[in-house]
Design goal:
632 residues; 8-stranded mixed β-sheet; 19 helices
Amino acid sequence: MNRRPVRPLSLDVARKIAAGEVIDRPAAIVRELLDNAVDSGADSISVELDGGGIEKIRISDNGSGFTKEDLAACARPHCTSKISESEDLLNLSTLGFRGEALASIAAVSRLSIMSGNYKMRASITEDHLIEQIPPVQDGKGTIVMSEGLFENFPARRNFLKRPSSENMMCREVFVEKSLPRPDIAFRLTIDGTIRHDLPKNVTLSERFARALELKENTRLFFQIDSKGKENDGETDWSFSLVIGEPSVYRNDRKNIYIFVNGRRVQEYSLIQAIEYGCQGFFPNGSHPVAALFLQVSPRVVDFNIHPAKKEVRFKDISAVHHGVSSAVRNYFRSYGIKSSFEREKELHEEIAKNERNTLFQAIVDNELSREKKETYPKAFPRYSEKSDTEIKIAEPSYSSRLAEYALSSKTENISTARQNSESFTKNHIRFQTDSELRFSIPNSPLSSRKEADFIYYGTLFGTFLMVQKSGIFYLIDQHAAHERILFNRLMSGGSETQNLLVPYEIQTSSKEEDDYLSKIKTTLCTAGFNCENKGNGRWIFTTIPARYNGSEEDLRRAIFEKKVSPEEIIYQIAAMTACKAAVKDGTILGPEAAQDLARKALELKDPHCPHGRPCWTTLTKEELFDRVRRTR
């Protein structure tokens, strides 16, 4: 190659190269302008897209707005109101701060900004042209428009996708920006059609379900709040986590969102923390639907490592990791996963209660209306010839009438509740009445003995135990049920320890790992892992729990890589032990052993194996009718 001299790039080329790092497609413009709108203090933001955002992007807000002097400088390279000195980068509290966005947008499109009485235009051919206009939006906030994206850069425009695909990516950015701010109203309009209209002042769960357009009911999502403190007693981090119950799951991690100080980031360790906390509740490779909203001190996190601010670097993420996984795990364990039967029953009861309340209110409203409209002679014509005294005696007072209706309504409520309860019970399988033969199969040893409130029919496919209890038909997974029973027995067996003839020696690789191990040392000892710091990163473990059968390397990985709490190490060991010892599929149990296992399974407070699979399911009469296409 011939040697070429070093020379400065032209301003036009330099601006396009710089813009390419920030603006690669319409979604990047939406991201940057939404950051500015949120930073402006707005509580209402509207986004309009035409032609996938390639033709036009218009974002308006009711925030603090621009002055004429601001407009004269805002789209020049590295102009910002967010920071002034390098030290400010260590204490960032805004989404935007570099001052690159507007200059980059102006380098690859036609940019216009309207605020107050002024409009500014900037592009590769126009340099901050300012003109006076009538006040827009009653003089409040700002309107920013980008038109003709990459008109002056055809090579880059050829890499854009179809407008429908670009719209989809812009929508994803819109959702990401709206999720952590339920205090702001957001609206998205695509080609003249309102696609999203999110009201302000709602809960995080409501914003999460509505923005993502989840098919599940918002009542299936819960909010977990937690915070951590440093040695000085000040809160160093806090988070709110919105997560669906175990019945709300996906086959991938696409619906797990991580936000740090209001900005969505790609941080696998925090996704990992959520999933570690969910272990035992989301079985068979399924993943939760969740969003973590983490607030950390700016001094322990650095956002200035990625042009689009999609990545973040933590000074030490171990405490946050442990806090998130522990909070999720503790919540689900205290939450107590209810069976589908219990949830259906609760739903029936809630519907019945609402119907009763509606009926009673209608009776009272109707009575009040009639009291105002009717006169005594019209209401009681047979007394029209009698005296006023007789009329007053014959006519019940309003208070007595209301009391009468209240009494009758109460009686009706009891009757309605009984009918609903009977309807619900009839909806589940009843094979017989008390006077009839319970259940039998001709020429089969599976005929059932008549017992009160419990009937065992036999084994299905060598896997399921068939049981009727309280008029409900259960299919019990014998392996999952036995596994849960053994697991409960192991976890209640105390915390015996064993001394190691050859102590475990774990070598830490950084001061952060030493600090983390020091923080959890007391908890480790309580769980049976007695350890001591010998200096220079050497930690010696002299005792371990009697139930622990992992290696030295297993323990090191559990503590430092998986960030598993000491209690959780025992939990995982007990779960693995119970799984290996439980009766396997295909094993035919004797009648007495099967019945004993079935009874114990139906008495479990948490009818799920330690890995999250349900121990049993129910089959309703309605479902059977549907299978055979029989009318109800």
